[in-house]
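Table S5 (text form). Sequence records supplied for joint modeling of the two-component complex.
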Amino acid sequence: MSVNHRRAWFSLVVEDPLSNILIKDATIVTMNREDRVIRRGYVRIEEDRIVEVGRASGLKGGGAELVLDGKGQALLPGLISGHTHSGLTLLRGFGEGLDPDKLWETWLWPYERSLRGKDSYASAQLTCLELIKSGVTCFADMHFNMESVAQAVRDSGLRASLSVAMMDSEAAPTTADRSTRENEELVRRWHGKAEGRISCMFGPCTVRTASRELFLKAREMADRYGVGLHIHLSETSRDVQHTVGRYGVRPVKYLHSLGILGDDVLAAHCVHLDREETELLKQSRTNPIHNPSCNAKTGVGMAPVAEMLAKGINVGLGLDAAVCNDSLDMFREMKVGCLLQSVAEGRSYGGILATEALRMCTVNNALALGFGDSIGSVEVGKKADLILVDLVQPHMTPLVWGQTSNLVSNLVYSATGRDVTTVIVDGTMLMRERIVSSLDERAVVEKAGETLERVLSRAGLKP
Amino acid sequence: MSVNHRRAWFSLVVEDPLSNILIKDATIVTMNREDRVIRRGYVRIEEDRIVEVGRASGLKGGGAELVLDGKGQALLPGLISGHTHSGLTLLRGFGEGLDPDKLWETWLWPYERSLRGKDSYASAQLTCLELIKSGVTCFADMHFNMESVAQAVRDSGLRASLSVAMMDSEAAPTTADRSTRENEELVRRWHGKAEGRISCMFGPCTVRTASRELFLKAREMADRYGVGLHIHLSETSRDVQHTVGRYGVRPVKYLHSLGILGDDVLAAHCVHLDREETELLKQSRTNPIHNPSCNAKTGVGMAPVAEMLAKGINVGLGLDAAVCNDSLDMFREMKVGCLLQSVAEGRSYGGILATEALRMCTVNNALALGFGDSIGSVEVGKKADLILVDLVQPHMTPLVWGQTSNLVSNLVYSATGRDVTTVIVDGTMLMRERIVSSLDERAVVEKAGETLERVLSRAGLKP
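The corresponding structure-token record, covering 926 residues in total, follows.
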């Protein structure tokens, strides 16, 4: 269903739900600078913006064309994934027990070589559906066939920052010329499109797969087009060994010396850092994106998140690929992130506090993706990217109010994406009472299975 | 609603659903010795037992009084939690960021001292409700006021193994005499009761809080009554230091020398083990219960699960207390367990494979709780403790069938307890289409909140 069809679908219910929505009596977790929580509050949306946020007692003026009862629900800014590969969602659950190199050789490279545009569309549609159903309203994505991914994002109603995986290593399923051209086309055609919901970056993949020249080219073009960079950085110890072996310095120092790093860079992983590198990330205002589930499953180590946060580095949180995360649910990711950091730090009850985890996937990710002014919190003037989470459930009981509250702890440690009831992006309702309006759930799920079979058969792969 | 009322409630729908249920066209994950998966199979239940398991093509004979369509669903043995404290569920989300000792002093001891029977009943009811809703059909529980917990378990329709936290240290909220008497009464009154769904153990809590005499007394009584022991073992490095300081040997060796260990012992945690201790656990056939979320959150370290499994030790999986796990969902616990072990091992894609995680919370836990012959797998002659999991969902798509399948990976890494649609315990339907029949969900949730407020107020605690 296209966005226009979706709007028509909703207009069967109320006359013009998009221009004016009032959400009443919700517990608002604003994620503003003061981490303000409004226990019984309201939010008014006009067109794509939040125009009022306040206590229920202060609500003035009439209702709205669409009034949502937020009683028993938390209203949050939509969650953001700082690092995703929507083209790999079709490989969910593959290759458990395989060494990553083996996984890549056996499944990923052949799969990627056989992946056509409409396959990427199907994989991205499945991704968008899963993200909407778990309360993710925006994501940073990097892969191939990004034109198709952009179409899927446009049709889903989500917000995203898209980039092409730029590579020129021998094993890569693409080349410097091809990936540079594709990324430039993507930027030209899609940056600022889909009512402004899609923006673009350049995606020099990683120091191991993209040459010095390709990184420099990507930086130059990013500057020319006024967009950012989405890269992988120091994910494995072998990444570090490779860079030291080839360039004589560690990856962060190497990229910094090339002038690649900066506040417009999304740097996925940043697991293996020495003290100097952490300092360089801070000085350059680079945005590390932590991907705890994938890093744990692939056994690459754990990023020093608590240390980076303490230094004031803007660390975000990402889902990475379904092929190694297996569930694209930022609520689950927050819990895993907190638990793993507690282990890494050997510190009890939180190397990352629940509030910090929530900040990582809202305000921090918004800033990292270049949307700091427009999304990431529930504040007047920001885009209406909002979710409602059902709190009246056994696994979030009791809910305690006093000098402190366990509300945020319950959201981070107890909730899952399945507790999200309502998703609004850019002022448009994408899910209500868990019914997604922009996508035909059954059709997307069926097409995903058929598509994977076709790709595997084309690649000569047998599960 | 009592069990009898519930039966009456169901008999409004069909004449006698309890005597004869047929589940058709489900994907059966049997968890038998061969890990057999039947892609399109059926299970027939008569009274409390599984009487037929087979391929749909082999289904003979008429229907049944209740026929469930399992299409698009996985049928699994109900999951089992090997270590739980249902009396602490009311403290969910408390004390984040506090050192464990501080958490205990500030919240747990005062809470426990103020906890009366009906408070424990409310906390256990909330626990049972959450467990049913996430597909847990049996749990091992240890706390105070276990008479009230037993009543809650009986009324919920679940299966459980219950024990009293036996302690005689100075700080403990009980004494040797009192806890011994209470545990003996519990065994006398409840072992084998509630249509056989409740069994009991003795619960000498931990080497730090229970003296040599109390451990010996518990062992002697367990032998006299023919029941097992439920203990905490080597959870923290301080536990080890304490035992070495006081008894000159490490905890496992100490308890082994007293004759405490054996195949009837549930030993929660077993995080800090040396090689000799691992060997003693194996020789004595003691059952370690791994509690990954709680161990991670409290930062105590990680149990050497992969090593123990490789040695052939029967390791189970537990949820531990909601106060430090925050969600009583064995599906989420399996994923966290796998991810943490991958980190502990520094091994990619699985220190614990998905199948092993599923085995830990089905057959391994069944054996650990002393129910190895009656539950833990979908096999003829076993009790009908079964769950159905909805597979046709974006976050479990695609589902691939070939020489291998990603089914078990999707169940362990992608599913959550929210995907469970149907729960049957002892042949009785406790949940259907996510409606719990044995408990009034809204009332249980409301009562939990009121009860916590009352207990905190009685204890002079302010959140």
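Note: Chain A has two domains: 3-77+378-441, 79-368.
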